[in-house]
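Why show two proteins at once? Because comparison is the fastest way to build intuition. When a single record is shown, students tend to memorize it. When two are placed side by side, the eye starts asking what differs. So, the first record is below.
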Amino acid sequence: MLPIPRLKPLRFGIQPRLLLVTLAIGLLFVLYIAFNTARQSSRDLDHVREEMRLVAALAGARLDDHLGDVTQLIYALAGTFPVDTVEVERNDAMLRRLAPQFPANVSGVSLWAADGANIGSSEPIAAGARLNAADRAFFIAAMREPGLASETPVRLNKGGDWTAVFALRIVRDARTVGVISVATALQTLPHLLDPDDSLTAGAVISLIDADGRIIGRSLEPERWIGQAAPMDRALVLRRLAEGRGSAENTGLDGVSRIAGFARSRSMPWLVYVGIPIDAALASANLNARESLALGVAMLVVGLFLAAWVAGRIARPLRQLSVDARLLGEGRLEHRSQVRTGSEIGLLAHTLNRMAAALQERTTAALRSEERLALALEGSDQSLFDWDIAGNRIHYSSRASTLRGGPDEASETTPEAMRAFVHPDDLDGLLASMKDALTGKTPIYEAEFRVRHNDGRWLWLRSRGRVVERDAEGQALRLVGTDTDITERKLAEEQLRQRAEFDALTGLPNRALFNDRLAGAIERARRSGKVLALLFLDIDHLKGINDSRGHGAGDELLTIAAERLLGAVRSVDTVARLAGDEFTVILEGLNEPADAEAVALKLVEAMRPAMRLGGALVHVSTSVGLALLEPGDSDPASLLRRADEALYAAKRAGRDRYAVSPFATSPAELA
């Protein structure tokens, strides 16, 4: 081990210096100011919302007072005037005499006959200029239903002012004789709701009806009355249902406002009182700017002091950074020359000791790696090292050559590794990894397929162990080996094929047939579906063997197997038991007739001529069909009944099917 220089005693530690920097930095103070400013702004915003809600409620109450006066006036006048066309002048005179006593903002009162003719008005009307209200909405609504009707906004005369018209049907002796209407000016209605002009400059009072139209506005009323409000009708109806509250929105004039709203109790109208957000929060924003300016000024001073102090600390730290970078590049022989009496000097001393220790361990590790590489080359295994925290997997060069790549080590991510694993094997691989990482199993072990660069699949046997965990037991590294077991898997598959499949036709043999039949019976008992077993053989096969040889017979059996497979579903099982004996398992059927249809299809599939050794040969098949009976779970019993049905078909003349217990096919088979 290299000699380590002796430490000098500490003179002025890094902690007092960092305290000076911390005291100089006023960031926390600025953050505190910003937090308090934001909190105060939030409180100011809530205060403005509440203030607007109360102002809107007051405006709504004044609107209800005005509408109450209008309602009281119209009901009082309805019982006063004679509804007679000959009394027009008298009605005019009486209404004009009462006009000075009308509530504020009432612009006129009119009396209408049942046919819509005007028979009285509080406003002067030129001769021959009297209106007829028969087609006006307020008149139609008043004549149709009892109670107060309204129409708004409306211009009673071309170029006239916007008004709201309230109308009431006049009934005498249980007969509707006319309508009385009261018009109230909409342009000046907002002033009636704020008679003292107490709102802040830029504030606006708006009235919105249930259809979402503006029917009154304190700013530019002539421009906005009758326009659609900047909200959909669903929102209008929701706020009418709420009754009162506050909101933030942008008006048709593009100004963002904090608004309070209240619903009139007399009419489905909303009163909005809005104040520009900038005006509402002007004072709070000024205080915030002043506070932040003070904080920033203090921060600048603190940063100036911190820069001076940090400069005294940063120089040796920068040198240590260079030293650490050189060590990180693998130059473990390098040693730091930083010498101070502070903790930085202690850090430099520790860094040198660590470099010396790493140099020794690296040398030992290189020797071990060389020995391991030689051992792996002899065993034809590849090495992997999964850095779980870093999400990287290091592979030895053998891992690359296994998949047809270059002979060099590589790194990849777990996500990239999964991309070349066979999809059918991925879940099992991940489950094995999870068990090892969580400690459920002491080792990781899995067999799976990976894609070779030429497109084929290789089988790997992977084994490993978690070699590093953190204090909480979480896995940090998994190291292991991969071995190519493709040849072993191919041998196992060949053994399985010979054990379970017929060598001539490639169909399942008797052993696999028995296994599948037992499974099908169990599934049928659970599902309640129909299960059928077909037992068949080739009619007069012995004669073909005798006349054309066993080679022709084998060729016939191969063709017969292909035709049987083509006549059934992919989920059905076609097996060869022995000689020319075949079976078909049909499961998941809805009714027995489905099985008979398949049996007939098999008989017909065998009739077309076959070419055997250059000659055309006609053959036929006989089929026995047995259905699984309720409560029956014995495969041998089902096979025996299908066999008995087969011989019943043969006795009936062959080239047909029979159903256990021996009912021959209903169709005449030629």
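Second record. Ask yourself what differs from the first in the token line.
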Amino acid sequence: MKTVIIPVGGMSCAACQGHVQRALEEVPGVERAAVSLLTNEASVVYDPAVAAPAKLVAAIVDSGYEAEVRAETSYVRPAAISIGIGLLMMAAMPWAGHGNRAWNWVQLGLTVFVMAGPGRGYYVKAVSGLRHGNTDMSTLITLGTGAAFAYSAAALAGWVHEVYFEAVVFILGLVLAGRAMEARARHQTAAAIRKLAQMAPAAAWVWRGEEWVSVAVEAVAPGDRLLVKPAERIPVDGVVEAGSSAVDESMLTGEPMAVAKGVGDRVAAGTLNGSGSLEFRATAVGAGTMLGQIVRMTREAQASRAPLQRLADRISAIFVPVVVTIAGVTFGVWLWVGGGAGAALQAAVAVLIIACPCAMGLAVPAAVMVATGRAAGLGVLFKGGEAMERLARVDVAVLDKTGTLTAGRPAVTHLEGDPQWLRFVAAVERHSEHPLAQAVVHYAGGLLPEVTGFAATPGQGAEGVVEGRRVRVGRPSWLGVDSPLPVAATVDGMFALALEVDDPVKATSAAGVRRLGVRTVMLTGDRAAAAERVAAAVGVREVHAGLLPGGKLEFIAGLQREGRVVAMIGDGVNDAPALAQADVGLAMATGSDIAAETAAVTLLRPDLLAAADAFALARATVRVMRQNLFWAFFYNAIGIPLAAAGELNPVLASAAMALSSVSVLANSLRLGRIRL
């Protein structure tokens, strides 16, 4: 199966979104399709042996929409023209009046110009939709403005008395203005992702033959040896083979502190190198880099459909026919009570215009889009709105120990002896593959001296000559040293130092546990004593040790049988079964293994504070979704009766309709600034 992103033009409400999605899902070979009203894109998973992008584009066009995106400023000029003409028509009323036939003919010409020019798209979409049996926002606008225009034309023929040409022009102008404001809001919500995608440099220094050569980053292949100079951005993902530096990874993880990088450490495309030079081997390029995957996952999340969206979709599917019926009844009732054809038409048109389901269609996807963009800036990737909704309902967080609460690799935690010999000891350990040796090298940092005569004794230690000194490092018993610490070293036969090596608790784990705000349980395959030590350090009271992956899965299933909503937070490697079983899986990302496929949320900052941010943002997002849906429903519940009662004229109704959409977007944009 393949996935393709197709730009879609002409969508204006939730019904449009549903029509495009159904049209794509009906194409043979399409497994699933997700259409985003905010990004104006369709993400389609299809079988290339059966379907092709050309067929998908044709299906979109056949359903009455365009397979291209209009420029985000394309609504501004049509809106300005329409509103300008409307203001001119209103300004001329005092001296021209409704009874001036010459002026009414001028109004007819101006109205036809606006309908055939700036507003043409709504009529084309409505006609095309009706041919396919679809109704949406364009249908309501076409019926409303068409009825007002027809009534006004009848007045010119002398059949009725009033004209509503200025209402037609203003309605189209205000609707277009609302779309322009929506486009601007969409631009703001997508700005962070666009900026992220542009972080990778255009060129890279690559070793070619006997020299470093600057080549286009597209020419870099996995396995190439690259050089990144001080203050340059890293072009692709890789593993450091020489040099040391501090790298600013805040654009990926949201973490402001630069991260020390040395031999064996991973580096990611788009991150900013510090004052040192690094030589590294490329492991992933282009879309395969961590940066490329972040952009892809965020776009897919923004195109996904949250469960709350299904409620809006079901209502939108029947909304337009119901509104048309209400408008017809309104027209008939006004005539029946003797209100006159003009008043009846005005009330019916106001019902059609104010009921446009724009706000309802934007309520959930707007919140999802802003939240996923904010999350990416915090180093959190959601796979979609559904993951956010589930995470907001979690009441038990199950935590892995190794790699989640702890660093996940041995680290030097204490030194006894003379630290001046640390560089000598690390120089010897650099040639050893033992995990404890690598911990010593990492602890020493910086440039290390050369070693000659290196020799290793399996299970005991290693030795070599450093700057003329015989250095031996390993088990204290092998060296004849009396020390309780696991690693000791001698220089020229004399005790130099001893080191404590452990898997340390991450500094952020205790604060992360507190901020999660739910019941926490630690599950680990480690010994009970080690598990209890870590649990005490981070504030977790419930611990289950000695569990294999299957045991973790069964424990989570037991919680779910009790009615609990469970989140599993693990390192995405040996926790895959538990991550899959949980209602929401949160995987700590490490290097290029950006996320376990089973996890719904990926944490680029590998600590529990990132998980706490994910929990807090999910709760805030669901609150905003519910607020948006409430106001969208409330707006229609109040607006339609007022319009039917004649309390709203069509121009005010169109302004209110545009304002409702903008208010939903404005409320959603708060998520970009909300404090977690």
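One difference worth noting in the second protein: Confidence is low (pLDDT under 50) at residues 591-596.
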